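ok so i was messing around last nite and threw this chain in just to see what happens. nothing serious, just curious
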Amino acid sequence: MAMKRVGHLCLLQIKELLRNPTFYAYLCLFFVYYHYLADGAVRLQQESGLWVNAWGYAAGVFSNYQSTLALGLGAVMLFSDLPLVRECALFEATRCSRNTWIGGRILYVGGVSVLYACLMLLLCAFTSRGRLMETSEWGKLLNTLANGYGFGEYHVPVSLSLEVTQNLTPLAAFGLTVLMSALATAALGLMMLCLSLSVGRIGAIAAGCMVAVLDFVIYQKLPFWCYWISPLSFTRLSIVYCPKMPYYPTWQQALVLLLVCNALCILLAFGLAHCNRAFAKGICKEQY
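result:
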């Protein structure tokens, strides 16, 4: 019965999100962003007569720090209303147990993270106007980029290596990127949930923004070993599928780290809900 209530709370919260016009405004902004990024790839296909594998293109674009930055900041906006999510959060907190209430929020973060990651990568794939039916061949254009060559005036924002194209199919690379993106987004959302329960929403948003820009800061200024502490960096195949860089985490290590991070945040969220005697008072303060 408790699990059924948790699922019901999660479903109500997801329905509330899908009824929110702001969510669709964010999707439109991301569509414009990925459409702008794909301009070089689209023109190159039209003028060369060659094709781009849409799945491999999306995986390659998400191997760049620009897409990681956009993914992280979008997740912060998406989870900025935690832990309330809905206007009747105070009523829910008084009508069900703390475990059920916080469990609904945790399940909501997980479900939204998967939905968010899938939508972002699908938008990226569709705006490339590349082939969607081809799932096993990378194609001449992406293979050229993987070999370290460019296309002059045509800027194709894809970061691929020979290790990726030789060991993974485009669809497998796409699926691995979706998995890592969903887990990284969930870790960010759960961290913000824990901070919202302990220090308040402003602190949670500030910390979320710091995590979202960490990959960009590492790329610009910090030592490369710092990628080990940046969960959003684990979404980049150029980082986690690069055996020539021994100070980068492998995708297996990154997967374990993300799973551990999510598990610890879940335990911490339950602990904060139980240890905080002024739990309802804190929710009421956030509400009003």
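not much to say yet. The CA atoms of residues 187 and 262 lie 5 Å apart.
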